Amino acid sequence: MTLAGLTAGCTTTGHIRQSIGVETVDNDKALAFPPPGGPAIVNVVERRHAKDVEQTISLSTSSSVPGQNFLKVQFLGLTGSNPGLGSRPYNTISDLAIAREMASAVPGVRLARSATFVQNSYGPFGYASGQSRNGDTCLYAWQQIQAGFSPPVEQRNFGMVQVRLRLCDAHATERQLLGTVYGYTIAGSFDGAPLNPFGAPRGADALLGKPGEPVYPDAAAYRTPPISIGYQTAPVAARRFVPRRPVAVQPQPQAAPVLPPMIGPRVPLPDGQGDMPQTGATSSAPATTAQHPPAANRSSVIVPLPDCNGDAGISDACRR
User: Fold this and answer.
1) Is this prediction's pTM over 0.85?
2) CA 142 to each of CA 95, 126, 164: distance values in angstroms, whole numbers, following the listed order
3) I need a surface site. Which of 46, 77, 189, 214 has the fewest CB within 10 A?
């Protein structure tokens, strides 16, 4: 038996089995698509669990935050009485589960949850946003699309679609990233009507075809503003106050004041040298003489001799 076992071990060839249920599908086989204009789909990885289908749709990423932008869609069809319709139990969205998902999808970025109620074409959704250290804007959104009640014969409808969206971009704003949550389209559906989570399609508007109900191509453009009745005074436009700068006034040149000549009584000098005018006295000569003194008066000014300016050797004539 030992020899047979060794022989069998030597002759057995190893074969690698590919995992069943995980494969890459074409982009046009995606169960959900981003809105027109992007972000573009890079590839689609599909996982199957019995009758449940999960797709991770990788989107183009322009960010320094680690990780890949993605749109994740899960189609879950379960009932409590017949587990053959699905292989996964029903799980509600919890705060702890969302916190773990955000930490794994957007590492290193602190995301703040929005407390504003928002909804798209498929119903309400939640999201959190934040910025990285490099200034990249990140957004993580989650949505659960669950069917309501079907007719009593079909029992309760438990078809459900789970959606997760991770977006990080170096140039987009939070509002631009949020537009992807509003504009994405779910392309997949369940085969059975009881599992349809989207509900029955809505009918046409009741106003269509009724007389007296005009339908415009753009209601906002054709809507008439309310007309005010009565006379109203025209509003007076407020004048804009413009401060004036002070104008610099150039000083006008003033004429020099006319002063009387400062010529006092003459003091006789000794030895017939003439007489000297006394300073500090006021003269009674006319102003014309002071302004334009004659040449004779200008030449008659006598300067005292040096003999009378010193302290020593003052003559008797200087003393007089």
Assistant:
1) no
2) 11, 5, 5
3) 214
